[in-house]
Design brief:
The chain is α+β, with helices and mostly antiparallel strands. The chain folds into two domains: about 5-155, Fructose-1,6-Bisphosphatase, Chain A, domain 1 (2-Layer Sandwich); about 165-275, D-Maltodextrin-Binding Protein, domain 2. Helices cover about 30% and strands about 25% of the residues. It has helices at about 5-25, 50-65, 75-80, 100-105, 180-185, 200-210, 225-235, 265-275, and strands at about 35-40, 45, 70, 90-100, 110-120, 120-130, 135-140, 145-150, 155, 170, 195, 215-220, 240, 255-260. The strands form three sheets. A seven-stranded mixed β-sheet has the order 3-4-5-6-7-8-9, sandwiched between helices. The chain has a five-stranded mixed β-sheet with strand order 11-10-12-14-13, with helices on both faces. A two-stranded antiparallel sheet has the order 1-2. A hairpin with a 3-residue loop joins β7 (about 135-140) and β8 (about 145-150). α1 (about 5-25) runs antiparallel to α2 (about 50-65) and α6 packs parallel to α7 (about 225-235). The protein starts with 5 loop residues before the first helix and ends with a helix.
Length: about 280
C-alpha cells in the first residue's frame, strides 16, 4: 500500500473531530441513567456516546479508506477475534471513541477520542482528539508529532529533557499490573517526585509527548488505549519499552509499558519501581 500521507492523517483527524461534535459532546453531561452501562465491572463503563461515535467513525473510515480493517473498542467487546487481524491487515485502524469513559460518564471534562493506523502490525499514524477544547495531537511515523488547533495553527511536540529520578513526574497506572509488580510500583511511588492517574490515557500521553511530564507506566495494553499515544510519544523523541525491555507492539496486550524521555531514564524508572 502507498505510505500513509499527511492528507490521510488530516482525513483521520477530521473523522474523529466530526464524530466528537456530532455524537460525543451533545451527550456530555446529558446522559440518562440507561445511557451508562457496566461491561466487565463498575469501573469499566460504556455509554451511548461510545457506541454511537464508534459506529459513525467506523462508517466514515470505511468510506475514506476502502478495504481497511477497523478494530473498535466496543466492537471488540462483542467480537474479541478482531484483535487477531492487527498483525496481518494491510491497513487497520484501532479506535477508542471515548477514552476516559468513567470521566465522561461522571461529567468530568477529561476524555479523548483516539485512533491509530496500523500496517501489518506497525503503528504508522495516530490522532488523539480532545473534544472539549477541539485540539488534536497527531503523529506520522518518521515525520514527527504536533498539536493541531481548530483554526489550523500547530506546534511540534517534544518530550521533556531527562531528569533525575527524584525530579520525575508522571502517570503510574498500577490497577492492571500483575503481582508482584502491582505491589512494588504502589509502594515505591515515593522514589519519584510525583505520580498521578487521570483515568484517561489520551491526556496522559498528550502530557508526556508535550514535555509536561516525564514518564508513564501501564500494565494492560489494549491497542486502542496505547497505539495512538505510543506513536505520539515516539515521534516526539521519547523512548519506551515493555517491562522486559522489548519494543512495544500493538499485537501484544500484556507485559506492561514504560515511556520516558530516553533509555537511561527508562532503566532508572524500571529499576526503581519494578526492580527486585
Amino acid at each position: 500500500m502507498p505510505p500513509f500521507s499527511r492528507a490521510n492523517l488530516a482525513t483521520l483527524d477530521t473523522i474523529l473531530r466530526e464524530a466528537s461534535q456530532a455524537e460525543i459532546m451533545p451527550r456530555f453531561r446529558r446522559l440518562a441513567e440507561g445511557d451508562i452501562r457496566a461491561k466487565t465491572g463498575p469501573l469499566d463503563l460504556v455509554t451511548e456516546a461510545d457506541e454511537q461515535a464508534e459506529r459513525v467513525i467506523t462508517a466514515a473510515l470505511s468510506h475514506a479508506f476502502p478495504g481497511c480493517t477497523i478494530i473498535g473498542e466496543e466492537a471488540t467487546s462483542a467480537d474479541p477475534t478482531l484483535l487477531d487481524t492487527i498483525a496481518t491487515a494491510e491497513l487497520a485502524f484501532v479506535v477508542d471513541p471515548v477514552d476516559g469513559t468513567s470521566n465522561f460518564a461522571w461529567g468530568m471534562p477529561l476524555f479523548g477520542c483516539m485512533a491509530a493506523a496500523i500496517s501489518r502490525g506497525e503503528v504508522i499514524a495516530a490522532v488523539i482528539h480532545d473534544p472539549v477544547i477541539g485540539t488534536s495531537a497527531l503523529a506520522l511515523r518518521g515525520e514527527g508529532a504536533w498539536n493541531q488547533e481548530p483554526d489550523g495553527r500547530h506546534h511540534d511536540l517534544r518530550v521533556a529533557a531527562p531528569a533525575p529520578l527524584e525530579r520525575m513526574v508522571g502517570a503510574i497506572n498500577w490497577r492492571f499490573l500483575p503481582e508482584p509488580e502491582r505491589s512494588r510500583a504502589g509502594q515505591r511511588q515515593d522514589r519519584v517526585a510525583a505520580s498521578y492517574g487521570y483515568r484517561c490515557a489520551a491526556h496522559e500521553y498528550r502530557l508526556i509527548a508535550g514535555g509536561h511530564s516525564h514518564y508513564s507506566l501501564y500494565g494492560k495494553l489494549m491497542p486502542w488505549d496505547h497505539a495512538p499515544g505510543w506513536l505520539l510519544h515516539q515521534e516526539a523523541g521519547g523512548y519506551s519499552a515493555q517491562f522486559d525491555g522489548t519494543q512495544y507492539r500493538p499485537t501484544v496486550t500484556a507485559g506492561g509499558l514504560i515511556c520516558t524521555p530516553d533509555r537511561a531514564s527508562w532503566q532508572a524508572l524500571h529499576d526503581a519501581l519494578l526492580g527486585t
